[in-house]
Amino acid sequence: MSLYAELHRHLGGSVVPRVLWRYFHRSDRDLAQRFPEYPEFEEFYTRPRNTLDEYLELHTLVESVQTAQTLPYFIYRLIRGAYIFENLAYLELRYTPYLRTPDHLSQSERIEKMAEIVDIVGISSRVPEYPIVTSQILCMHSRLPYEVNRAIVDLASQAKEYVCAVDIAGGDAHVAERLDEFVGLFEYARSLGIKTTGHLFETSSGCYPQLLPYLMRIGHGIQIPLKYPELLPEVAQRNQCLEVCPTTYLKTGTLEDMRQLKLVFDRCFDAGVDIAICTDNAGLHNVRLPFEYENLLTLDVIGFDQLQACQEAAFRHAFAWPYAQRPASILTGLLQTESGDTLAIGG
To answer: 244-261 pLDDT, tens per residue?
Structure first.
């Protein structure tokens, strides 16, 4: 059995439609009345949007119900599905903790509540019957105030038992007017020893080379090989990995056809730039990681050798994977040891 690493999955977009709809009908009368029948809700929740901003509005639907009280419910089902249906050995969950705090509180009170959210997500992610190595990436947000974003970086530094990195999310076009601010925040994070990734070069409106030197991985990054291939040597030199999420680009209107990603993979492989294939929002897309692999293979975007290279890159660039090898190598070593022991006993 193959075991995989998922490096780019949002907590808000990870809830599969059926689980979310059932929660509405058990616990939220207003949303249950809005979506009385499941097929209508699934069509609404998973259909493509015209722009990234329109697509991101769906996150607010889930964020509103992911509270300190309900997060264990959602995370247990997330981990169960990831283990049983996706064969994940490693999962990084990313989200903005501030947006899971009660919105009736003051900004300072919500900032204080963020640590509780991180603890709840961390504890809930450790499910003994579904042994997956998990960690959190805390997302700064392009539409949140500087004080909140700096507090998110500080929290990442203080909660290293559960947190492996920081990110910037919220729509890449909105970074432009505060670019110097986010450069400073990423520089601050690196000064604290925090690992970094960031939603950049996802769309043509989110291309900020000024931020690249401060990132260890690049969230999406597909516009680099598509429109700025001259940057690829620098990306390779920094050993930065692109977190490519194929279905996302169809759902956000960024690409018209997944086959357009062939140029992304070809140019990255030619330049020596690693790619980790990810889901981004597996629930929102109703697509699990093995199906992302299968779609890319079926459409001849990549071959099996490239797929294996991407799977290996995911473990190599994982921020909190605790082993030097990927699971397949560890299992192979165990089987060889057992075989040798058997032979020795038989002799």
So the answer is: 999 999 999 999 999 999
Q: Which of 208, 210, 166 is nearest to 188 (CA)?
A: 166
CB atoms near residue 30 (< 10 Å): 7
CA distances from 10 to 15, 68, 153, 278 (A): 9, 17, 18, 11
Mapping DSSP to helix (H, G, I), strand (E, B) and coil, where does residue 321 land? coil
d(CA 330, CA 333): 5
How many Å apart are CA 115 and CA 126, to the nearest integer? Answer: 17
Displacement of CA 210 from its chain's centroid (Å): 22
Distance from C-alpha of 190 to C-alpha of 181, rounded to nearest angstrom? 14
Residue 301: closest CA among 251, 346, 247: 247
Beta strands in 19-119 (DSSP E): 88-95
CA distance 285 to 89: 21
The topology (CATH level 3) of 4-336 is TIM Barrel (3.20.20)
Domain range list for the chain: 4-336
Tokens of 203: 């769309």
pTM of the full predicted structure? Answer: 0.91
pLDDT tens-digit readout, 7-47: 999 998 888 888 888 988 888 788 788 889 999 888 888 88
CA dihedral 11, 165, 138, 175 (to 10 degrees): -110
